[in-house]
Amino acid sequence: MTRDTADAATLIDGLQYCKWSREIFQQMREGGMSAVHATVSYHDGFRDTVRNLVEWNWRFRDHADLILLGRDADDIAAAKASGRTAIFLGLQNPMPIEDDLGLVEILHELGIRFMQITYNNQSLLGAGWMEAVDGGVTRMGREVIAEMNRLGMVIDMSHSGERTTLEAIELSTRPIAVTHANPSWWRETGRNKSAEVVKALAETGGMLGLSIYPHHLRDGGATTLQDFCAMAAEVAVMIGVDNLGIGSDLCQGQPDNIVQWMREGRWTRPDRRSARAAFPAQPEWFGDNRDFAGLAAGLKAAGFSGADTAKILGENWRNFMRKAFKPGDLS
Questions:
Q1: Residue 151's CB: how many other CB atoms inside 10 A?
Q2: Are residues 42 and 86 in contact, defined by beta-carbon separation less than 8 angstroms?
Q3: Residues β-bridged to residue 155
């Protein structure tokens, strides 16, 4: 993909959790990124999440020449027109709403546009993929799903268990998203998604963001671009191309102790935690936002047309967001 082509394309990453800096925002611009969904919180309560949002407000002020806050899909066009990247904010855990349904709306008003019903563990809303028993969506989970539908906040099931994910797809009156995961038949990790989930997601108009995080790849950081794009082609044969995007799960610049925080937060004693974790090495073809446009060559080599490549690299996410962020009943 040439520089001119990248400038004209709509490039959207469905999930990143980087150690945010001006350098990374500049790389977004160099890579031609139109929009990025950025994680605000993991195991944070409401107050700490608000503190994280304060920090994001400072970033939008201090780097206003590079980024802007995305609230609806029109902000993607506004960002492209002004040479910036729209940042859509999301939560990878429902802990910020605590046990208060009303906080869903407050967080939406503060700019949150995505929220996972669970992370790896059982939450008040449903079961994460690491739980031995998946009891499905809880009573509170049903209320929260309805409220997120009303507001136009995307339900993200990336870390949820199989039953919880399928029930959320059925319960939601809007299409939902799995912002960052791959099919389990390509690599069985427990975290990647089954054929049943992938099909149900597509049948209801949902989005699957294919992940480039090494633990989700068949050969980890050694996975080739050719193999990744061949997997994308397999999924497209199964469900069509219109429900596919990229959710890289890029964690650029994060220190290794953040992995421990992601996995265990504060819910277990320090002396009972697992061995020290570290971020795996990224594949050589994707290390930062400047590599995003380079996915085009791999997708085309795997048999995707130019139009379908453009869909996967951003147009599908933009079309999804146009509907997903509109408040009210869309039936």
A1: 18
A2: no
A3: 115
Measured distance between the N- and C-terminal CA atoms of the chain, rounded to whole angstroms: 39
Distance between CA 262 and CA 158 in Å, rounded?
Answer: 14
- The structure tokens listed for 309 are 């490549």
Phi, psi of 154 (to 5 degrees): -75, 130
Residue range 281-326, pLDDT digits in tens:
999 999 999 999 999 999 999 999 999 999 999 999 999 999 999 9
Residue 84: closest CA among 39, 20, 14, 35: 35
What's the rounded Cα separation, in Å, for the pair 210 and 232? 8
Give phi and psi for 75, each to the nearest 5: -70, -20
With 0.85 as the threshold, say if the pTM is over it: yes
Domains of the chain, start order? 3-324 (3.20.20.140)
Q: How far apart are CA 263 and CA 72, in angstroms?
A: 31
Residue showing tokens 């265990």: 264
pLDDT in tens, 186-203: 999 999 999 999 999 999
Asked whether the beta carbons of 207 and 179 are under 8 A apart, the reply is yes
233 three-state secondary structure: helix
